[in-house]
Amino acid sequence: MGFIMDGLDAEAYDRSYSDRQLVKRILAYFRPEGWRIGVVALAIFLTSVVNTALPVVISNGLDELGVTHPTPAMLIRLMLIVTALGVLGWTFNAFRQWLSAAAIGNVTLRLREDAFDAVTKRDMSFYDQFPSAKIVSRVTSDTQQFSQTVGLVTDLMSQFLLVVLLIGYLFSVNVTMALITLALAPFIIVTALGFRKIARATITQSRRVNAEVSSHIQETVSGIRIAKAFRQEQAIYDDFLDVNSRSYRINLRTGYTFSSIFPILNLVAGIGTAALVYFGGRITIDSPNLLTPGQWYLFIQGLALFWFPLTSIASFWSQFQLGLAAGERVFALIDAEAKVVQTGNLTLEHVGGEIEFKHLDFGYVEGQPVLSDFNLHIRQGESLALVGHTGSGKSSIGKLVARFYEFQGGDIAVDGISLRTVNLDSYRSKLGIVTQTPFLFDGTVRENIRYGRASASDAEVEAAAMQVANGDWLSVLAQGLDTPVGERGSALSMGQRQLVCLARVVLQDPAIFILDEATASVDPLTEALIQEGLDTVMKGRTSIVIAHRLSTIKHSDRIIVLREGEIIEQGTHDELIQKDGHYAELYNTYFRHQSLEYIESAKDMVA
Amino acid sequence: MALKSEFFVQPAYPYDRSRPIRWVWSHIWRYKRLFLQCVAGFIIGYTSFSYARILIGQAADAIINADPAALASAGLAVLLILLLDSLASLAGSLSIETVAQRMERDGRQELYEALLGKSQTWHDRQRVGDIMARATDDMRQMNGMINPGILFMLDMMLGITVPVIMIASIRLELVSLLIVFVLIYALAVRRYARALNPVVNHQRSTFGAMNAGLEETIVGIEVVKASAQEAFERRKFHLNAKAYRDYFAQQGRIEARYLPMFFYALLTGGVFMHCMLLFAAGRLGVAEIVAVMGLIGVMRFPVFVSIFSFSLVQLGIASARRVLEIINAETAMDENASGHAAVMQGGLTFENVTFTFDDGIPILKNISFDVQPGQTIAIVGQTGSGKSTLTDLINRTYDTVAGRILIDGIDVRDWNMASLRSQISRIEQDVFLFSRSIAENIAFGAPGTPQEDIERAAREAQAHDFIMALPDGYNTVIGERGVTLSGGQRQRLALRVRS
Hints:
The complex is a heterodimer.
Chain A: H1 2-5, H2 19-30, H3 34-67, H4 72-121, H5 124-129, H6 132-147, H7 149-173, H8 175-222, H9 224-229, H10 233-286, H11 293-335, E1 355-362, E2 371-378, E3 383-388, H12 394-401, E4 409-414, E5 417-418, H13 424-428, E6 431-434, H14 445-450, H15 458-467, H16 494-508, E7 512-516, H17 524-538, E8 542-546, H18 550-555, E9 558-563, E10 566-571, H19 573-579, H20 582-591, H21 596-606
Parallel strand pairs in A: 3-8, 3-9, 6-7, 7-8
Antiparallel strand pairs in A: 1-2, 1-4, 4-5, 9-10
Helix pairs in contact in A: 3-4, 3-7, 3-11, 4-6, 4-11, 6-8, 6-11, 7-8, 7-11, 8-10, 8-11, 10-11, 15-16, 16-17, 19-20
Chain B: H1 20-30, H2 32-64, H3 68-117, H4 120-125, H5 128-170, H6 175-219, H7 221-226, H8 230-256, H9 259-280, H10 286-327, E1 348-356, E2 362-371, H11 387-394, E3 402-407, E4 410-411, H12 417-422, H13 438-442, H14 451-460, H15 464-469, H16 487-493
Antiparallel strand pairs in B: 1-2, 1-3, 3-4
């Protein structure tokens, strides 16, 4: 069945944990639930004791019937005992379910939060590498699966105790019969262990293929507009059929494994029951003083009692593996080593904004350096435009200042302090970033602006919005600041999204401002609005602009021209034009048409 | 009534989509042979398993009468009938498992086809995380509703009916208590299901909200980090996860107070008492008491398991409702397969075009203009003025509210959808690349394009050089969001080949 395994490789951050390590981890999570788990275990045990006592009472009753004629008092006594045992069993079980649901719910919550924290602590290279749907399924689904294993563990412990007690009692009644009962145990255990092996392998594959299905659907839904525009529904549909049928084959195999365990164990128990009926019957007939008919019946009922815990001990393994496989995925996520290595945790109260790259080496992928021995000094309050061809490394510089990625050599210092030694939260809160594709959260414009500083009052949010291009852009919005932006900002135009992001930065009031300009998404008229906004944002702040627009470039204090990760020219616009070098060439080919004269002529063309 | 759809495949099977239960049932009934095989397996299984209790009673008789030959034949009969039970149950379990897995596969496929067929207007209203939850978790839940959900239902029905019939055949009057029990049991189960239903529904929708929220955080992680808002996102996640925890615990509390098991305990005591009374009256032997108590024991698991069968089936129906909601959602456009299909010349006319989104705010008002084939036009205007929307109307991403758009003199609504869309190229502001190889992304509009053509297109877009610098060249697979490429590189790849 090799073909089924194709494409099921583990994620790069997956690790293998031993069962012992995983169990240790889960115990740590359940420690705060100690008393609940204790009561649950006790309740399960008591339920089992009551369940054992029931057939004992009935078999004794049967024997009494053979000896004496039943009196009304004896009948009432028996009935009361049988009923009372049943009611007690129900009560204990209710306790157990009540408390274990609470405990499992709490642990799942804690586990989810830890997984969530782990995810948000990863650097950007993690998100570049792993699809969001797979991460989501680990945080929400696998955690639940894993925490449910504890219910299984308490079951196991109490049932093990029950088996020991029951066997002890049966031995005291009749040794031969107890041995016949016990002889079944190895068969059950061997079958169980066999299943354990198969189960673990199949379930891991199932979870992976399920995550793949999620990924595929997520991509389809996010990219549906493109698929429609290109009329490529059939192509992605075919891809989907492929993933979906692979998921079917793998899940069917897992399903068969789990569906056959009980009938097979049933088979073993059936053989045992028949053996007890016959051999026990012979003992009773041949030597009635060794085994009464009532006791014979007890053994047959006892087998069912003994068998049920044993099969749950057996199915425990397969279910437990199911949980452990999920646990492995959760902990691999929680434990994944951060690539961004911080050597200190210095909280920055104030950031001036002087930035220095010192002999920096950086690449996203090993063996493909983007920057080598890169040096750049940015003065406090300076505005810097980075220009260069695609792939020249301009975006990387912004991302490195934000400490989104780990660099391999050299250092970056802010106000003379190495970025490796600072508390990133305190540092980033002094950093304002607008990404190339402006991202908005589902909610209103107001909520998105407030994202820059959660404590801001409505008045402050409005003031920030008004500061960006005098708030001219707000009048176009249907409900002003309370306009819903839609999922990922889809209800706003690209230019509007950028303006919202700028207002967000104004509210945040950072010391350093990084802008990765959108390449082609804003029209000249909106550009004027954005430029006004930018002037506000950049005033008095260190600004790094990955520039695509002439107006931004011209407004900056210094232009850095990059080629293949090296600074080949720098200076102001006029200086560089005079120099007639690389920048002048770039200007003539890319930027000149954005000049004001060009825009004016575009307007004339429309008019 | 057939729904409109922008994408159509010949349905593999005519499912009944009028109500969730019927829809689920039509999925099961598609594999009726397997389903009936399962029911037959379980009938045989439960009948043999129960009959073994009567055989054990006969063995008890043989013991009391000290008859080794009768004991031996009873023992052998027990062995054979329990073997039959195991094999029949195994066959039944595997059959239903197959139905369950096929249902998950087929249902997801049906949902996927529906998703592809919905209009962009519809898609704009959806949250990706929510749709994902429906396509994955809800479909899993429907799988679980069949196995073990429906399996447990069978356990419940057969595991109660068969023993009751056998007890009746031993001594009819013993059934009186059983009938009372079954009535009370049915009422208790009904009450239980009613209490559980709303909690289960809330739990599902909370799970969806939690997933959607987390998804958004992860997709927007750059902004989260850049604004140092991890704590805010954490709170948001915490609220969702906590709400889920609360419903989970509430479900546990309702399940804990599951009364049928309580009545079962009373039943055991009552039937035992009744047996003794009959014995005292000389109307029932020890062997029969053994058989009756054994049969009462058979009922234990089925009574117990209905707790799960009801939650599983309810969860499954709730999931089916959510999935069906999407499948049945109305959408405005269809493929227009019989529409006009021709090579486009490129003449474009807007005639008094007006467009508003669902919110009623007008985007375009009475727009009219003409474009000649081969002409290049620029549309200029403030952000939010409707420039992008205007272009969305040409390939019918959205339809106009009033007025019409003509291409080569023919209303776009009269064009065959495939012909229309495949001849209009559009570079998106939002560069969305699929997680496939670069070559496949370039050839997205024209699968099967030869490598030379792909490379030529890449050279024209000045993308060839950077593509060749990537580890696997044109075969490099791009991550989910194409993030291993810079913005400019992504934009260039978006200049895709056209068929």
